[in-house]
Amino acid sequence: MSSRTIGIVRELDELGRVVLPIEMRRLLGIGFGDSIEFFLGNGAIMMRKYRPLSTCLFCNRTGSAVVLFKNQFICVDCLDEAVNTDREKTNAGFGTRKKKRQKSEFMIERLRAEIHKHPEASQKELAEILGISQGRVSQLKKFLA
Ligand SMILES: [Zn+2]
């Protein structure tokens, strides 16, 4: 309960700085170097840990499973779900081909993101990260040029 203490009073210094109580930082998982986003409302200043843009549009997940797809950050699972939903709407033959094409586009974007993150990674390492074969990596790499 002590982490939820309210009524803490802190004095502002000459530069407008105030120390955030450690209990609140702990509660919100805010640490040294984290970015804080401010909000104004009802005469109060609110703040929260800043969420970087590479957060899944649908489920707010972050990390290497989130990729840029058609100018939106989407995680692997949500994109897979979106593609499958899309497929159900189309007839079987055309749908399968469309899904295959979308999967390739998606994999190319993931590969591009991973190469950007790990420029020194070998084809083997990239294959392991993406969960595909080395052959597929070299095949997809041709689309990156
Ligand atoms: Zn997601």
TrEMBL record:
* Pfam families with a match to the protein in the record: MazE_antitoxin, Sigma70_r4
Q: For the SpoVT-AbrB domain, which residue ranges apply?
A: 7-52
UniProt KW Phosphoprotein keyword: no
Sorted alphabetically, which SUPFAM superfamilies does this protein's record hold?
AbrB/MazE/MraZ-like
Entry keyword annotation includes Secreted: no
Example GO molecular function: DNA binding
Q: Which InterPro entries match?
A: B_subtilis_Trans_State_Reg (IPR052731), Lambda_DNA-bd_dom_sf (IPR010982), RNA_pol_sigma70_r4 (IPR007630), SpoVT-AbrB_dom (IPR007159), SpoVT-AbrB_sf (IPR037914)
Keywords annotated in UniProt: DNA-binding
PANTHER family found in the cross-reference section:
PTHR36432, TRANSITION STATE REGULATOR ABH-RELATED (PTHR36432:SF4)
Q: What is this protein called?
A: AbrB/MazE/SpoVT family DNA-binding domain-containing protein
